[in-house]
Amino acid sequence: MDGENKASLEAAIADLKQAQRVLVITGAGISADSGLPTYRGVGGLYDRDLTEEGFPIEECLSGGMFRQRPDITWKYLYQLESTARGAGHNAGHKALADMEKHFERFTILTQNVDGFHRDAGSTDVIEIHGNIHTLYCTACGAEEWVTDFSHLEEIPPKCEACKAIVRPRVTLFDEWLPEDDVARLEHTVAQGPDFVMSIGTTAGFPYIAAPMIHAANSGISTMEINPSETEVSAFAKHPIRQRGIDVLPKIQRALQ
Ligand SMILES: [Zn+2]
């Protein structure tokens, strides 16, 4: 760590120690430290513009495609889930879970669908894009928890009760965010977090960037942990150009 980064981290920790209500925003970067690719990385699609079906990956993973060609959407959902198989939460997730007890509120808003924050032990998690392991029937609503898609008998899987197609409770591209989670996020923001940190996300979605921007404009301390600059970097009082897996355990130890 260079001198400037070290000073910045110390200043960030000093602010965090004064905080009582912390909002943490996480994205693909924190799970990438567990070896997971982002959507664009699915099936090695990173350098290609279109999937073999001739659509952009976002279109394959969209609600519109799921209604018309659930087989295509499921193919990529399956690939997405398979890349996470055998991977688990890392030291970054664990450090966040361990930090929780030092604060009155410690809410994690995550865009990740891998469930790693809950697995690590965090109790106040808003999974704004859902959780890939929760499957539900599109007709009767029956829900089941599937940790490993390779155990599914067919793709797309069918409901045991009514034989309709089943899908994960994730927000596909072009779909609305889940109402309950949006309400929880609004409630958390309304309570006025006194420290906001953004970790491993480019914050490309407006609802992900908004809490950082709002905090910065209200004079609330903000920290960004990301190796490169992002949409919210300008709003970070404490920009830490490192990976979550490296810096979060240091912060957690400093809170002891
Ligand atoms: Zn059903």
Structural account:
- This protein is an alpha/beta fold.
- It has three domains: 156 residues, Rossmann fold; 46 residues, no CATH class; 38 residues, no CATH class.
- The chain is built from ten helices and nine strands.
- The chain has a six-stranded parallel sheet with strand order 3-2-1-7-8-9, sandwiched between helices.
- About 2% of the residues have low confidence.
- It binds zinc ion.
- Zinc ion binds next to loops.
Strand content: 15-25%
SS content category: alpha/beta
Could you tell me the radius of gyration in angstroms?
19 Å
The order of strands across the largest sheet is 3-2-1-7-8-9
Helix content: 25-40%
How many structural domains in the coordinates? 3
How many helix segments? 10
Pattern of helices and strands: HEHHHHHEHEEEEHEHEEH
Shape: elongated
Most strands sheet? 6 strands, parallel
Give the full name of the CATH homologous superfamily of the largest domain.
TPP-binding domain
Assigned CATH class of the largest domain: Alpha Beta
Q: What is the count of β-strands?
A: 9
Mean pLDDT: 91
Bound molecules: zinc ion
Low-confidence stretches: 43-47
In short:
This protein has helices at 3-18, 28-32, 57-60, 63-68, 70-84, 91-99, 116-120, 179-190, 206-217, 244-254; strands spanning 21-26, 105-110, 125-127, 130-137, 143-145, 166-170, 195-199, 221-225, 238-240. With 256 residues, the chain is α/β, with parallel strands linked by helices.
